[in-house]
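Ticket #4471: structure export looks truncated?
Reporter: QA, pipeline team
Priority: medium

Steps to reproduce: submit the single chain below to the structure queue and open the exported record.
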Amino acid sequence: MIFELERLVQLCDGVAVLSLIAYFLTRTRYSSVFVSKTFSPFSALFMALIGGFFYLYGMMTGVQIGPYDISIQMLGPVIAGLVAGTISGLLAGSLGILLHIGLGEPIGPFTLIITFLSGIMGGLFWYLHKDAIIRMSHAFLLGFLVASVQFIIGKDGINQDILLPGEVIEGTIDIFLPTILGLCIFVFIINNLRLEEENNRKSFQIEGELTAARQIQIGSLPEQNQEWDHVSLSASLLPASYIGGDLYDYLKLDDEDLYFALGDVSGKGVPAALLMSSTRMILRSKIRETRDPCTLVREINRSFLEDGDSRQFITLIVGIVHLQTGEVCYCNAGHPPPYLITRSATIELESDGNLPAGVLEDEQYIPHFVSLKQGDLLVLVSDGVTEAERGEELYGSERVVRILSEQSPKTPLEVVDLLNHEVKTWTGDNPQSDDCTILALRYYSASPSEN
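Actual output as written to the record:
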C-alpha cells in the first residue's frame, strides 16, 4: 500500500485537535487577533506563541516511516504567518525549534529551513490577503506548497532527518493530506469569524441608523401633551420595531377649531414610516384649504391610489373639534372606532364600515358627529391596542371599554398611560406585534385651569 490508514488517521486526529483549539481561541477576547488585517506587535507575539505550541503538538503527534518522522508541525509557523504576518511566522518557527531542542529531540539544518520557509510562505499569503477573505482554493494552494517543500527536500535526500529518499513515495499522502486539510479548516474558521465580525459591524451600523430614524420620526410628531382653552390632549406612539407606520397628529387651527388625526399605514418598517410621513404632510397642507374631515380622507385615498401600489393602504380617523361648542366632526376610513368617556359611561362609537384609504377609488366617506360635554374624553387607538396578542387571544375592544369604565381616568394623560400599561401587562413577555398609538382629548366648557 502507498500509505497505512491508521497512520493517516493519527495525523488527521492531530489536525482535528489543533482545529478545535483554533476555534475556541476565536471565541475568546483575543478573537480580534484573527480578524485584524493590520500588523501589530501584540498580534505577532500572540500568534507566535500559538504557532509555537502548534509546532510542538504537531511534532509530538507525528508518525514514523521506518526510523523517520512525518508530522504536522509545520502548521504552526504557517498559521502564525497567515494570521499575523511573516515576523510572527518566523517567531513561531523559532519558538517551535527551541521547544524541539528543549525536549532533547535531534534536529537537522534542513528542518530549520523548512520551518522558516513555512513561516515566510504564511506571511506572504497574509500580505496578499490583508484586504480580502482568503479563498479556499488559496488555502489549498498554500497547504500544497508547504507540503511540497517537505516532499521535494525529502525526495532529493536533503532533509535526511525527516524522510529518506527511498521512503518518500510511501509518505506522500501522509505529508500532503493532513497539511492541506489543516490549513483549509483553519482558513474556514478564520473566514467565518471575519464574516461574522463584518456582519456584526454592519448590524451595529444599521441599528444606529434605525435608532436615529426612530428619533427623527418621533421628533417629527407633535408634543405628547398639550393644553389649550377648552381642550387638553395627550398622545403616544410605541413602534413595534425601530420605526413604524402609525401616526398621530393635531393642530390648533385658530380659536375656533382643533384638527386631530390618527392612522395606521399597512406594513411595518421603513416603507410604512415613509408613507406615514407623506400622509401627515398631505393632511397638514390640505387642512389649510378645507376643514371637512371627509375631504381630507378622500385626498389621502387619491394619493395612495395614484402611488400605484395596490398593497399599500391606511386606516385613518381625521376630525375637527369646535372649541366653543364641543362639537366634533370626524371621518373614519376603516379604523377602529373611537371611544367616548362621559361621566356616566364609556361608549365605543359606531363605525360605518368604510374601507381604508387606498383601497377603492370611489369609496364614499361620510362624516360622523359627536357632541362633547364638560369633562368628556374622546379616545382614539390603533389596532396595535385592540389586536395585542396573548397566545391566540386578542386584547379586544370590549376589554378597552371595560378598563376605561372601571378605572375612570380623568385626564388624557391618565388614559394614555392606563392603556399602554394594560396592553403591556396583557401581552406579558410576548413581543409587541404592531405599533401601539393612542390619542385622547378632553373637552372643557371653560379653560382647563378654570375647571
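Status: closed, not a bug. The export was complete when the record was re-opened. Leaving a note from the reviewer for reference: The chain is about 50% helix and 15% strand.
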